[in-house]
Structure to design on (421 residues):
Protein backbone atom coordinates (compact mmCIF):
# COMPACT_ATOMS: atom_id res chain seq x y z
CA UNK A 1 0.00 0.00 0.00
CA UNK A 2 1.40 3.38 -1.07
CA UNK A 3 -0.24 6.65 0.00
CA UNK A 4 0.16 10.03 -1.71
CA UNK A 5 -1.12 13.53 -1.08
CA UNK A 6 -2.65 14.83 -4.33
CA UNK A 7 -4.70 17.54 -5.96
CA UNK A 8 -5.49 20.97 -4.61
CA UNK A 9 -3.46 20.59 -1.41
CA UNK A 10 -0.24 20.09 -3.37
CA UNK A 11 -1.15 22.84 -5.83
CA UNK A 12 -1.93 25.40 -3.14
CA UNK A 13 1.22 24.59 -1.19
CA UNK A 14 3.34 25.13 -4.31
CA UNK A 15 1.58 28.46 -4.81
CA UNK A 16 2.42 29.46 -1.24
CA UNK A 17 -1.23 29.45 -0.21
CA UNK A 18 -2.64 28.06 3.05
CA UNK A 19 -3.85 24.47 2.86
CA UNK A 20 -6.85 23.48 4.94
CA UNK A 21 -7.98 20.19 3.39
CA UNK A 22 -5.84 17.33 2.16
CA UNK A 23 -6.77 14.70 -0.42
CA UNK A 24 -5.02 11.36 -0.47
CA UNK A 25 -4.85 8.57 -3.02
CA UNK A 26 -3.97 5.00 -2.12
CA UNK A 27 -2.17 2.77 -4.60
CA UNK A 28 -1.92 -1.00 -4.33
CA UNK A 29 -4.76 -1.62 -1.87
CA UNK A 30 -8.17 -3.22 -1.89
CA UNK A 31 -11.30 -2.01 -0.06
CA UNK A 32 -10.98 -4.97 2.29
CA UNK A 33 -7.41 -4.01 3.21
CA UNK A 34 -8.48 -0.43 3.89
CA UNK A 35 -11.32 -1.55 6.14
CA UNK A 36 -9.01 -3.93 7.99
CA UNK A 37 -6.79 -0.97 8.92
CA UNK A 38 -9.72 0.99 10.36
CA UNK A 39 -10.58 3.22 7.40
CA UNK A 40 -14.31 3.92 7.16
CA UNK A 41 -15.90 3.52 3.70
CA UNK A 42 -18.02 6.52 2.60
CA UNK A 43 -17.85 6.51 -1.21
CA UNK A 44 -20.81 5.46 -3.32
CA UNK A 45 -19.61 5.94 -6.91
CA UNK A 46 -16.03 4.82 -6.16
CA UNK A 47 -14.11 3.60 -3.07
CA UNK A 48 -13.41 6.51 -0.71
CA UNK A 49 -12.53 6.07 2.96
CA UNK A 50 -12.17 8.30 6.01
CA UNK A 51 -8.96 8.04 7.99
CA UNK A 52 -9.76 6.56 11.43
CA UNK A 53 -8.13 9.52 13.23
CA UNK A 54 -7.85 12.56 10.95
CA UNK A 55 -11.16 11.86 9.14
CA UNK A 56 -9.56 13.06 5.89
CA UNK A 57 -10.57 11.34 2.66
CA UNK A 58 -8.47 8.56 1.17
CA UNK A 59 -9.50 7.33 -2.29
CA UNK A 60 -8.29 4.18 -3.97
CA UNK A 61 -6.43 4.85 -7.20
CA UNK A 62 -8.76 4.53 -10.17
CA UNK A 63 -9.20 5.10 -13.86
CA UNK A 64 -12.28 6.49 -15.59
CA UNK A 65 -13.62 5.89 -19.07
CA UNK A 66 -16.55 7.68 -20.60
CA UNK A 67 -19.32 5.38 -21.79
CA UNK A 68 -22.20 7.82 -22.39
CA UNK A 69 -23.11 11.47 -22.07
CA UNK A 70 -24.24 12.76 -18.72
CA UNK A 71 -23.14 12.67 -15.10
CA UNK A 72 -23.39 8.87 -14.74
CA UNK A 73 -21.81 8.07 -18.08
CA UNK A 74 -18.43 6.88 -16.74
CA UNK A 75 -17.00 3.43 -16.18
CA UNK A 76 -14.82 3.55 -13.05
CA UNK A 77 -12.13 0.96 -12.52
CA UNK A 78 -10.37 0.46 -9.18
CA UNK A 79 -7.78 -2.22 -8.63
CA UNK A 80 -4.49 -2.66 -6.76
CA UNK A 81 -2.93 -2.71 -10.23
CA UNK A 82 -3.93 0.91 -11.05
CA UNK A 83 -0.75 2.99 -10.90
CA UNK A 84 -0.32 6.46 -9.50
CA UNK A 85 0.35 7.88 -12.96
CA UNK A 86 -2.86 6.31 -14.28
CA UNK A 87 -4.79 7.94 -11.44
CA UNK A 88 -3.16 11.33 -12.09
CA UNK A 89 -3.89 11.05 -15.81
CA UNK A 90 -7.66 11.12 -15.19
CA UNK A 91 -7.44 14.54 -13.53
CA UNK A 92 -8.46 17.76 -15.24
CA UNK A 93 -5.45 20.10 -15.16
CA UNK A 94 -1.73 19.52 -14.83
CA UNK A 95 -1.54 21.68 -11.70
CA UNK A 96 -3.98 19.25 -10.06
CA UNK A 97 -2.07 16.17 -11.22
CA UNK A 98 0.89 16.36 -8.84
CA UNK A 99 1.46 13.98 -5.94
CA UNK A 100 3.73 13.73 -2.91
CA UNK A 101 4.42 10.46 -1.05
CA UNK A 102 2.85 10.55 2.40
CA UNK A 103 6.21 9.60 3.88
CA UNK A 104 7.56 12.99 2.76
CA UNK A 105 4.61 15.06 4.06
CA UNK A 106 5.11 16.78 7.40
CA UNK A 107 2.49 17.14 10.16
CA UNK A 108 2.16 20.89 9.49
CA UNK A 109 1.07 20.18 5.93
CA UNK A 110 4.36 21.03 4.24
CA UNK A 111 6.32 18.53 2.17
CA UNK A 112 9.69 17.94 0.57
CA UNK A 113 9.36 19.24 -3.00
CA UNK A 114 12.29 17.10 -4.08
CA UNK A 115 9.98 14.09 -3.89
CA UNK A 116 7.16 15.44 -6.05
CA UNK A 117 5.62 13.00 -8.53
CA UNK A 118 4.84 15.22 -11.53
CA UNK A 119 4.48 13.19 -14.73
CA UNK A 120 2.48 15.90 -16.55
CA UNK A 121 4.68 18.90 -15.67
CA UNK A 122 2.18 20.59 -13.42
CA UNK A 123 4.90 22.35 -11.46
CA UNK A 124 6.12 23.99 -14.65
CA UNK A 125 2.60 25.19 -15.46
CA UNK A 126 2.19 26.57 -11.94
CA UNK A 127 5.42 28.55 -12.38
CA UNK A 128 4.19 29.84 -15.74
CA UNK A 129 0.67 30.48 -14.38
CA UNK A 130 -1.02 28.34 -17.03
CA UNK A 131 -4.11 26.15 -16.89
CA UNK A 132 -3.39 23.16 -19.16
CA UNK A 133 -5.39 19.95 -19.52
CA UNK A 134 -3.65 16.71 -18.62
CA UNK A 135 -4.74 14.52 -21.53
CA UNK A 136 -7.34 14.67 -24.32
CA UNK A 137 -9.61 12.73 -21.91
CA UNK A 138 -10.36 16.18 -20.44
CA UNK A 139 -13.14 16.39 -23.01
CA UNK A 140 -14.97 13.45 -21.49
CA UNK A 141 -16.37 15.52 -18.62
CA UNK A 142 -17.84 18.92 -19.57
CA UNK A 143 -18.01 20.03 -15.94
CA UNK A 144 -14.26 20.54 -16.30
CA UNK A 145 -14.98 23.63 -18.39
CA UNK A 146 -16.80 25.07 -15.41
CA UNK A 147 -13.97 24.09 -13.07
CA UNK A 148 -11.38 25.83 -15.22
CA UNK A 149 -13.59 28.93 -15.30
CA UNK A 150 -14.02 28.82 -11.53
CA UNK A 151 -10.29 28.40 -10.94
CA UNK A 152 -9.60 31.36 -13.20
CA UNK A 153 -11.77 33.45 -10.87
CA UNK A 154 -9.62 32.31 -7.94
CA UNK A 155 -6.16 32.31 -9.49
CA UNK A 156 -6.41 35.61 -11.32
CA UNK A 157 -2.85 35.61 -12.69
CA UNK A 158 -3.36 32.36 -14.63
CA UNK A 159 -4.24 32.08 -18.29
CA UNK A 160 -5.65 29.13 -20.23
CA UNK A 161 -3.26 27.32 -22.56
CA UNK A 162 -4.31 27.84 -26.20
CA UNK A 163 -4.69 24.11 -26.79
CA UNK A 164 -6.92 23.81 -23.71
CA UNK A 165 -9.13 26.69 -24.85
CA UNK A 166 -9.41 25.09 -28.28
CA UNK A 167 -10.42 21.79 -26.69
CA UNK A 168 -13.08 23.50 -24.58
CA UNK A 169 -14.51 25.21 -27.66
CA UNK A 170 -14.73 21.86 -29.43
CA UNK A 171 -16.54 20.41 -26.42
CA UNK A 172 -19.08 23.24 -26.56
CA UNK A 173 -19.52 22.87 -30.32
CA UNK A 174 -20.09 19.12 -29.88
CA UNK A 175 -22.91 19.79 -27.43
CA UNK A 176 -21.15 18.37 -24.38
CA UNK A 177 -22.18 21.20 -22.03
CA UNK A 178 -25.82 20.74 -23.02
CA UNK A 179 -25.84 17.53 -21.00
CA UNK A 180 -24.69 19.02 -17.70
CA UNK A 181 -27.22 18.53 -14.91
CA UNK A 182 -28.43 21.59 -13.01
CA UNK A 183 -26.87 20.58 -9.70
CA UNK A 184 -23.37 20.44 -11.16
CA UNK A 185 -23.78 23.74 -12.99
CA UNK A 186 -25.03 25.48 -9.86
CA UNK A 187 -22.28 23.96 -7.73
CA UNK A 188 -19.55 25.42 -9.93
CA UNK A 189 -21.29 28.73 -10.69
CA UNK A 190 -22.03 29.39 -7.01
CA UNK A 191 -18.47 28.58 -6.00
CA UNK A 192 -17.12 30.78 -8.77
CA UNK A 193 -19.32 33.67 -7.66
CA UNK A 194 -17.60 33.50 -4.27
CA UNK A 195 -14.07 33.74 -5.67
CA UNK A 196 -11.84 36.82 -5.73
CA UNK A 197 -12.76 37.91 -9.26
CA UNK A 198 -16.03 36.30 -10.37
CA UNK A 199 -15.89 38.22 -13.66
CA UNK A 200 -13.08 35.99 -14.91
CA UNK A 201 -15.30 32.91 -14.65
CA UNK A 202 -17.97 34.41 -16.88
CA UNK A 203 -15.49 35.92 -19.30
CA UNK A 204 -13.79 32.54 -19.77
CA UNK A 205 -17.13 30.77 -20.22
CA UNK A 206 -18.03 33.38 -22.81
CA UNK A 207 -14.69 33.01 -24.60
CA UNK A 208 -15.15 29.27 -25.09
CA UNK A 209 -18.85 29.60 -25.97
CA UNK A 210 -20.21 27.80 -22.90
CA UNK A 211 -21.91 30.88 -21.43
CA UNK A 212 -24.21 31.10 -24.43
CA UNK A 213 -25.36 27.52 -23.81
CA UNK A 214 -25.55 27.56 -20.01
CA UNK A 215 -26.61 31.12 -19.19
CA UNK A 216 -27.96 32.71 -22.36
CA UNK A 217 -29.70 35.40 -20.29
CA UNK A 218 -26.27 36.58 -19.13
CA UNK A 219 -24.44 36.05 -22.41
CA UNK A 220 -26.76 38.31 -24.39
CA UNK A 221 -25.89 41.34 -22.21
CA UNK A 222 -22.60 41.95 -23.99
CA UNK A 223 -22.92 44.52 -26.74
CA UNK A 224 -26.11 46.02 -25.27
CA UNK A 225 -25.54 49.78 -24.76
CA UNK A 226 -26.63 51.84 -21.77
CA UNK A 227 -26.89 55.59 -21.36
CA UNK A 228 -23.32 56.87 -20.85
CA UNK A 229 -24.36 59.55 -18.36
CA UNK A 230 -25.39 56.76 -16.00
CA UNK A 231 -23.03 54.06 -17.25
CA UNK A 232 -19.69 55.41 -18.52
CA UNK A 233 -18.69 51.80 -19.35
CA UNK A 234 -21.74 51.72 -21.71
CA UNK A 235 -21.72 47.95 -22.37
CA UNK A 236 -24.16 46.08 -20.13
CA UNK A 237 -22.00 42.95 -20.03
CA UNK A 238 -18.98 44.97 -18.94
CA UNK A 239 -21.12 46.62 -16.26
CA UNK A 240 -22.26 43.25 -14.96
CA UNK A 241 -18.66 42.06 -14.60
CA UNK A 242 -17.78 45.22 -12.69
CA UNK A 243 -20.76 44.71 -10.38
CA UNK A 244 -19.75 41.12 -9.61
CA UNK A 245 -16.18 42.13 -8.85
CA UNK A 246 -17.44 44.90 -6.60
CA UNK A 247 -19.52 42.30 -4.74
CA UNK A 248 -16.34 40.29 -4.22
CA UNK A 249 -14.48 43.40 -3.08
CA UNK A 250 -17.21 44.11 -0.50
CA UNK A 251 -17.09 40.43 0.57
CA UNK A 252 -20.80 40.03 -0.08
CA UNK A 253 -22.50 36.69 0.64
CA UNK A 254 -23.66 34.34 -2.11
CA UNK A 255 -27.24 35.61 -2.03
CA UNK A 256 -26.03 39.13 -2.83
CA UNK A 257 -23.68 37.96 -5.56
CA UNK A 258 -26.42 35.95 -7.24
CA UNK A 259 -28.71 38.99 -7.06
CA UNK A 260 -25.97 41.06 -8.70
CA UNK A 261 -25.69 38.46 -11.47
CA UNK A 262 -29.37 38.78 -12.32
CA UNK A 263 -30.23 42.40 -11.56
CA UNK A 264 -30.02 43.63 -15.18
CA UNK A 265 -30.96 40.54 -17.21
CA UNK A 266 -33.92 42.40 -18.69
CA UNK A 267 -31.62 44.79 -20.52
CA UNK A 268 -30.73 41.92 -22.84
CA UNK A 269 -34.32 41.90 -24.13
CA UNK A 270 -34.76 45.66 -24.64
CA UNK A 271 -36.14 46.48 -28.09
CA UNK A 272 -33.36 47.86 -30.33
CA UNK A 273 -35.37 50.95 -31.29
CA UNK A 274 -35.39 52.29 -27.70
CA UNK A 275 -31.72 51.69 -26.86
CA UNK A 276 -29.76 52.87 -24.95
CA UNK A 277 -32.78 53.39 -22.66
CA UNK A 278 -34.14 50.36 -20.83
CA UNK A 279 -37.66 51.22 -19.77
CA UNK A 280 -39.24 48.41 -17.74
CA UNK A 281 -36.11 46.29 -17.61
CA UNK A 282 -36.66 45.68 -13.90
CA UNK A 283 -39.78 43.57 -14.41
CA UNK A 284 -38.23 41.79 -17.39
CA UNK A 285 -35.20 40.97 -15.24
CA UNK A 286 -37.44 39.49 -12.54
CA UNK A 287 -39.21 37.28 -15.10
CA UNK A 288 -35.93 36.05 -16.55
CA UNK A 289 -34.56 35.40 -13.08
CA UNK A 290 -37.53 33.18 -12.29
CA UNK A 291 -36.67 30.91 -15.21
CA UNK A 292 -32.95 31.02 -14.47
CA UNK A 293 -33.42 30.14 -10.82
CA UNK A 294 -35.68 27.21 -11.66
CA UNK A 295 -33.30 25.94 -14.31
CA UNK A 296 -30.25 26.14 -12.04
CA UNK A 297 -32.25 24.98 -9.01
CA UNK A 298 -30.73 27.85 -7.08
CA UNK A 299 -31.51 28.00 -3.35
CA UNK A 300 -34.70 29.80 -2.39
CA UNK A 301 -32.91 32.56 -0.45
CA UNK A 302 -30.84 33.39 -3.54
CA UNK A 303 -33.93 33.51 -5.77
CA UNK A 304 -35.95 35.66 -3.37
CA UNK A 305 -33.23 38.24 -2.83
CA UNK A 306 -32.49 38.42 -6.56
CA UNK A 307 -36.17 39.00 -7.33
CA UNK A 308 -36.43 41.98 -4.97
CA UNK A 309 -33.14 43.50 -6.16
CA UNK A 310 -34.17 43.15 -9.81
CA UNK A 311 -37.51 44.87 -9.19
CA UNK A 312 -36.43 47.60 -6.80
CA UNK A 313 -32.78 48.52 -7.45
CA UNK A 314 -33.76 51.52 -9.56
CA UNK A 315 -36.11 52.80 -6.88
CA UNK A 316 -33.45 52.34 -4.22
CA UNK A 317 -30.95 54.29 -6.34
CA UNK A 318 -33.52 57.10 -6.64
CA UNK A 319 -34.62 56.95 -3.01
CA UNK A 320 -32.95 60.25 -2.13
CA UNK A 321 -35.79 61.96 -4.01
CA UNK A 322 -38.56 60.11 -2.15
CA UNK A 323 -40.58 61.46 0.74
CA UNK A 324 -41.55 59.59 3.94
CA UNK A 325 -44.67 57.89 2.56
CA UNK A 326 -42.96 56.76 -0.63
CA UNK A 327 -39.98 55.50 1.36
CA UNK A 328 -42.27 53.45 3.58
CA UNK A 329 -43.95 51.93 0.52
CA UNK A 330 -40.51 51.02 -0.81
CA UNK A 331 -39.59 49.36 2.48
CA UNK A 332 -42.87 47.44 2.43
CA UNK A 333 -42.31 46.19 -1.14
CA UNK A 334 -38.87 44.97 -0.04
CA UNK A 335 -40.45 43.27 3.01
CA UNK A 336 -37.85 45.21 5.03
CA UNK A 337 -40.01 45.60 8.15
CA UNK A 338 -40.50 41.87 8.46
CA UNK A 339 -37.01 40.90 7.22
CA UNK A 340 -34.61 43.71 8.15
CA UNK A 341 -31.48 41.57 7.90
CA UNK A 342 -32.32 40.64 4.31
CA UNK A 343 -32.91 44.31 3.53
CA UNK A 344 -29.30 45.00 4.52
CA UNK A 345 -28.25 42.51 1.82
CA UNK A 346 -30.53 44.23 -0.69
CA UNK A 347 -28.73 47.49 0.03
CA UNK A 348 -25.33 45.85 -0.46
CA UNK A 349 -26.43 44.52 -3.86
CA UNK A 350 -27.61 47.98 -4.87
CA UNK A 351 -24.32 49.51 -3.73
CA UNK A 352 -22.46 46.98 -5.90
CA UNK A 353 -24.63 48.02 -8.85
CA UNK A 354 -23.98 51.72 -8.25
CA UNK A 355 -20.22 51.34 -7.77
CA UNK A 356 -19.77 48.73 -10.51
CA UNK A 357 -19.46 51.46 -13.13
CA UNK A 358 -16.46 53.00 -14.82
CA UNK A 359 -15.06 55.76 -12.62
CA UNK A 360 -17.64 55.18 -9.87
CA UNK A 361 -15.79 52.48 -7.96
CA UNK A 362 -14.74 54.71 -5.06
CA UNK A 363 -17.88 56.80 -4.80
CA UNK A 364 -20.03 56.58 -1.65
CA UNK A 365 -23.54 55.18 -1.70
CA UNK A 366 -25.50 57.39 0.73
CA UNK A 367 -28.82 55.77 -0.19
CA UNK A 368 -27.92 52.79 1.98
CA UNK A 369 -27.41 54.76 5.19
CA UNK A 370 -30.50 56.89 4.54
CA UNK A 371 -32.77 53.90 3.95
CA UNK A 372 -31.31 51.95 6.87
CA UNK A 373 -31.92 54.95 9.12
CA UNK A 374 -35.52 55.22 7.99
CA UNK A 375 -36.05 51.50 8.53
CA UNK A 376 -34.56 51.69 12.05
CA UNK A 377 -36.90 54.56 12.87
CA UNK A 378 -39.90 52.67 11.53
CA UNK A 379 -38.99 49.52 13.45
CA UNK A 380 -38.71 51.54 16.65
CA UNK A 381 -42.37 52.55 16.46
CA UNK A 382 -44.44 50.82 19.22
CA UNK A 383 -46.86 49.20 16.81
CA UNK A 384 -48.20 46.79 19.42
CA UNK A 385 -49.20 49.65 21.68
CA UNK A 386 -50.70 51.55 18.74
CA UNK A 387 -52.78 48.51 17.81
CA UNK A 388 -53.97 47.95 21.38
CA UNK A 389 -54.97 51.60 21.76
CA UNK A 390 -56.85 51.50 18.44
CA UNK A 391 -58.73 48.38 19.47
CA UNK A 392 -59.60 49.98 22.79
CA UNK A 393 -61.04 52.91 20.84
CA UNK A 394 -63.28 50.50 18.95
CA UNK A 395 -61.30 50.42 15.69
CA UNK A 396 -61.11 47.14 13.83
CA UNK A 397 -59.40 45.49 10.86
CA UNK A 398 -58.18 47.82 8.18
CA UNK A 399 -58.46 50.91 10.36
CA UNK A 400 -55.88 49.51 12.78
CA UNK A 401 -53.54 48.89 9.89
CA UNK A 402 -54.06 52.44 8.63
CA UNK A 403 -53.13 53.89 12.03
CA UNK A 404 -49.98 51.77 12.21
CA UNK A 405 -49.05 52.83 8.68
CA UNK A 406 -49.59 56.50 9.54
CA UNK A 407 -47.42 56.17 12.64
CA UNK A 408 -44.64 54.64 10.57
CA UNK A 409 -44.82 57.44 8.01
CA UNK A 410 -44.55 59.95 10.86
CA UNK A 411 -41.53 58.05 12.26
CA UNK A 412 -39.83 58.19 8.86
CA UNK A 413 -40.61 61.91 8.59
CA UNK A 414 -39.20 62.64 12.05
CA UNK A 415 -36.02 60.76 11.21
CA UNK A 416 -35.58 62.77 8.01
CA UNK A 417 -36.57 66.05 9.65
CA UNK A 418 -39.53 66.40 7.30
CA UNK A 419 -43.25 66.86 7.66
CA UNK A 420 -45.33 63.71 7.18
CA UNK A 421 -47.05 63.56 3.81
Amino acid sequence: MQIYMVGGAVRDALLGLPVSDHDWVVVGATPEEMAAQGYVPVGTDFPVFLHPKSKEEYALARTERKTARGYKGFAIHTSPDVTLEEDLARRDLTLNAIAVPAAHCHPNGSFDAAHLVDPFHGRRDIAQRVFRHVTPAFREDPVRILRVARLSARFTAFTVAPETMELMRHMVDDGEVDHLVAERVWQEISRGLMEARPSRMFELLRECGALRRLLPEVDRLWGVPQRPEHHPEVDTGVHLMMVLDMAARLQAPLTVRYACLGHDLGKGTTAPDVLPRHIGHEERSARLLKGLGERLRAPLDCRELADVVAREHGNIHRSATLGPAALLRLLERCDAIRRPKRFADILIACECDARGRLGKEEEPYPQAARLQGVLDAVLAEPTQAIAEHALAQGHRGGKVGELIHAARVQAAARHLGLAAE
The radius of gyration is 27 Å. The longest strand covers residues 2-6.
